[in-house]
Every structure is written in C-alpha cells, then in structure tokens.
Amino acid sequence: MAKPAKTATEAPQAAEQPDQQLGPVMKFFKGPAKWADDRTGVGGIMSGRIPNIFNLRKVFPDHWSFMLGEIALYSFVVLLLTGVFLTLWFKPSMGEIEYNGSYQLLRGLPMSEAYASTLNISFDVRGGLLIRQIHHWAALLFIASMLTHSMRIFFTGGFRKPREINWVIGATLLFLGMTEGFLGYSIPDDLLSGVGVRIIFGAVLSIPLVGTYLETWFLGGEYPGDILVPRMYMLHILLIPAVILALVAVHLVLIFYHKHTQFPGQGRTEKNVVGYPFFPVYTAKAGGFFFIVFGVIVLMAALIQINPIWVYGPYNPAEVSAGSQPDWYIGYLEGALRLMPNWEWHIGPTTWSWNIFIPAILGFVALPGAIGVYPFLEKWVSGDDLEHHVLDRPRNAPNRTAIGVAGITVYVVLMIGGANDIIATHFHISLNAITLTLRWGIFILPIITFMITKRICIGLQRAAYDRVLHGSESGVIHRSPAGGYSEPHTPITQGEAYTITQHHEYQPLTSGPQTDENGVARRGTAKERARRPFTRWYYGHNVPKPTAAEVEEARHHQGGHEVEGGHDDHAIESGEHSDEQVGAGHSD
Q1: Which helix (H) or strand (E) holds 572?
Q2: Where is composition skewed (Basic and acidic residues) in this entry (predicted)?
Q3: Count of domains forming the chain
C-alpha cells in the first residue's frame, strides 16, 4: 500500500528584528575610530584583514628628494653601530679621579671618570677618536636630514590625509633627536657641554612653581650632584633610542601601507604609483646608498675635527669658556635666550622668570609642536577630507610655502642671535646693536619674507597659466614687413601641461544662506563663519587653472599644433591600497 505523500508546511517566519542602534558610548567613539581606521587600517586588522605591507614588489616612485629620509635612517643606523662601540669604553660616573692618561697637558688634574674615559677613548683606544667623531657627525647629519626631510614634506603637502599620523611621528622624532643629541653632547662632562647643561637646568628652574622640585628630583639634590651623568647616560643609550627605533618602525610601516607620495606628472594619479619595484631595484639602491652615507660620514670624521673635549678641559661649575656655542640644532634656543627681554614677575615669595621660561622651555617645545599641529589647522581651513597621494608644487600653495619660509626666517634669526657675541668680536659691531636689531628682526623679517614668497608663488602661477595657454618662448624674434617685432611661442607637451594643471583647486568660502527653506538655521553655519575669512586669506589670491574652453581656444589660435608627451619606462602601481604592479609605461 502506497504511503501518503508528505504535505508541505510553511516554516514559521522569524519576527523582524529592529535595527540595532549605537549607544551613546559607541556614538562618541565612532568618529575617532573611523578617523584612525582611514589612516592606519586598524579596523581591518581587528576584523582579521591583515594588509600585505611586506610585498617586495611594491612600487616606489623615484625622485632625489626622497633620499633625505633615507639619509636620516642610515645616519641613525650609523649612530647605533658606533654607539655600541663607545658604550664598551665609556664610564658614566661623576666620581672624581686624578687623570694619569696619555694626554700630558691634563695630567694631574682632578676630573670625573666620565671625562677621563672620554679622553681614554680619544687617545688610548685604537680607533676610538675616529669612532667618536663618526658618532658626532652622524648625530648632526641625523638631525639635519630629519629637518630637511620635514621641510620637503611640508612644502609639497605630503602631510595631508591619510598621513597626518606619520607627520606627527616625524615631528616627535625630530624632538627626540634633538633631545638625544643634547644628552650625547653633555655626558662627556667637559667644560663646554657643562655650560650647556647649566643653562638647561636654569631653564628647568624657571618653570613656575614646580621648577625647583623638578631639578632636585632629577639631580637627587643640588646642582651638579653626582648622579647627573649616569641618568643622562641611561636616557641616551636606552630609553630614547628605544622610542626612536619603535617610532621609525611605525613610520616605515605606515609608508608601506599608505603608498609613497609622488610628484605630479603624466600618468600619476591619486590611485596609482609610478616608479620601480622595491625588490630588486630599491633594495639595491638602498644598500648602495647606505654605504655611500656611511662612507661620507667616515670621511668627514677622518678629515674634519669636531668636539675636541681635551681643549675645553673638565667641567667646573665656577668656570665658563669664552665664546661658548652649542651644536647648531640647539643654537636657536641659545638665540632666543639672548634676545628675550628681562621679563619677570614677583608674586609673594616666588619669582616667575618669563625671560627664561618662554624662550628655553616653550621655545624647545614650540618647534616640533608647531610642525605637528599644522596639518590639522590647514585641514580645518580647507575642509578637505580627500586622500592625497600626489604632492603639491610649492607654488600652488602660496600661503603654505610663505608660512614655511617665514618659519625658516625665524629660525635663522634666532641662530644668528645665538652667535651675537662671535659676530660682535669678529666684525667689530656693538653687541647691544646686534641684539636690538635682531629683536626687531624676529617680528619684521618673517612678515617681509612671507609677503615676498607669496608674491613669487603667485607670479609663478601666472607664468604657468600663460605657459599652458600660449606655450613657451621660442627665443626666435620675427620682424614683420611693417617693422614690428614678435616672438612666436612653442606649444608645451601634453605631459607638462598635465603636470601644471593636475593640482586640486580650493575655493574660498562665500556667504551663503543662514537658514534653509523652512527658516531653520543650517547646520555648520557657525563653523563656516569662522572658516570664511581664513579661506579667503589662504586661497583668495590663487590663480585659477585654465579651463578646457580656454585651452581649446588657445590651441585653435595657435593653429591646432599639439605636441604629444613622451613616456618613461616605469612601473605603475594602481588601486587605493593595492600592491599590484599593472604594467610598464605611463597611463594616459
């Protein structure tokens, strides 16, 4: 007997679940979390999508200015290598001994073990003086290359989204590098470096209310104490190098993750990278360049004397050598101290020494602080939330370029102020006259250089505008039958025209309606009112790019001559964060 067929029954449907709403805590962290994910990919990492940042075929652009960061990296490697050697021989002790080493001019003098061991490295350890000078020159090159590298990134806008975090890391590295250099300069306990240490602790004392406590805590008592050199030594060889090494690693990882920036040009867009693969091209170049940097540092150390501490003698708090000058990267702080007027407050039993605190403490923090905060100020003014992988030409951001030149002017004026006594004695000029001139110059010269730089950038914009529409001067003068003279222009290549007009244009904010059609105040109106004058000041004088109609009319006027651009044998990496190499040659 056949079994009855099973009847189909409808499965019960689950009740619709309402959309989950974020709680107040999650809503608060939603914005910062998205900001961090856009710049670090941390959201993808937490969900298990690990980005491939170690792709050896990753494409990197090729430009000489990118070597500035490599010089900083290789100088740091040289510092680590030579620092290990010096650590084996240096004695970080302030215990007093009588010197009986091979340098006869100092025999019999009382000095610290730190100073005596440095003399021993210089005169008794085989190759010790060469290693000391390599270490010192590498430190100077490390800071100089970091500062120059930061200037290159600043003037080309390489700090924009998604590289704000990497820019802040770079500013922190600059601050740590200056601190590390000062500590290494100070631990030999010679007279010149001791004067600098005395100035720094005078600055610490100027910190209102807590300065004396901080000095006593660090020194373990009164200045100079007997633990200053050991504590600076541990900071110099352990803590700060470890932090620098960690930040350098994060810096390099973010460079791999974000793709390297590239200069504008034909075939270069925000979605690709035109250049050569990391392996084998850049690995070979980087390896060779490391030995070039190492060789130049060794050559400088072998031929150019630096920091001859045996000439200065051991540190004595009662003595100050004439014409004392710090290393150049601290020179701007020395100049700020010398130029600052004598401003002091006397409140009750306390003295507030603004003449020391402002130039020494705030000045030391102001340089990396201003560098680190600038990208966020510019982003607030522009309102730009796009990703930028193609760099700006400095002329296309005249205010940014002018701000950078004004900052360099301030730095140079302070550097000159730090050497006002040397200038006075060598050029027979009044020291007071130099100081007074520089006090006025610190306010006037940055304004003048700002205005001149901005006008130069706008002039270059106008020249580029004319170059796109009318071409370049041919250098050939024609005379007409009527006796007039003219110079025909040669049309520029398509690649050059693309390079000139590739940049993004920002428009100043204009006054819009304060309310919507229902009479309700528009959101963001207060923010726009605050930004409006800054956008007019920042972008109001920019020369607009030629429109397509203007270019077409200019080509028609020139007779339709069109010069096609060439191409280079490069690789192109495309995709937002892709590591795929899609071909050789430019894409149009």
Answers
A1: strand 571-574
A2: 552-580
A3: 2
Which is nearest to 102 in space by CA: 130, 89, 121?
121
- Considering the domain architecture, whether residues 241 and 329 belong to the same structural domain is answered as yes
Contact 83, 274 (CB under 8 A): no
CA distance 16 to 74: 61
Residue with tokens 């390099």: 252
Beta-bridge mates of residue 475: none
373 and 476 fall within a common domain: no
Residue written as tokens 């990296």?
73
Euclidean distance between CA atoms 365 and 369, whole angstroms: 6
Name beta bridge partners: 273: 573
Half-sphere exposure of 388 (CA within 13 A, CB side): 22
Residues 6+ apart with CB under 8 A from 68: 145, 148, 149, 152
Q: How many Å apart are CA 72 and CA 74, to the nearest integer?
A: 6
- State how far the Cα of 125 lies from the Cα of 119, in Å rounded to an integer: 9
Question: 432-457, pLDDT tens digit by residue?
Answer: 999 999 999 999 999 999 999 999 99
Tokens of 418: 């730090």
- Residues 187, 237: contact at Cβ < 8 Å? no
Q: 486: which strand partners?
A: 478
pTM, two decimal places: 0.84
Residues contacting residue 171 through CB under 8 Å, at least 6 positions apart: 150, 368, 369, 371, 372
Residue 251 near residue 173 (C-beta atoms within 8 A):
yes
Burial grade of 534 (CB within 10 A; 0-12, 13-18, 19 or more): middle
Q: Which residue has 């800071």 as its token pair?
A: 143
Tokens coding 46:
């937490």
* Whether 490 and 369 share a structural domain: no
Which strand ranges, in their side-by-side order, compose the sheet holding 581-584?
Answer: 59-60, 272-277, 571-574, 581-584
Q: Which of 169, 199, 168 is nearest to 182 (CA)?
A: 199
- The range of the structural domain enclosing residue 545 comes to 454-459+466-577
Continuous H helices in 383-430 = 398-418, 420-427
* CATH number, domain with residue 107: 1.20.810.10
- Helices 240-258, 67-89: axis angle to 10 degrees equals 160
Q: How confident is the model over 14-55, as pLDDT tens digits? A: 555 555 566 665 555 556 666 565 666 655 555 555 555 567
Q: Is residue 124 part of a domain?
A: yes
Q: Which helix (H) or strand (E) holds 472?
A: strand 472-473
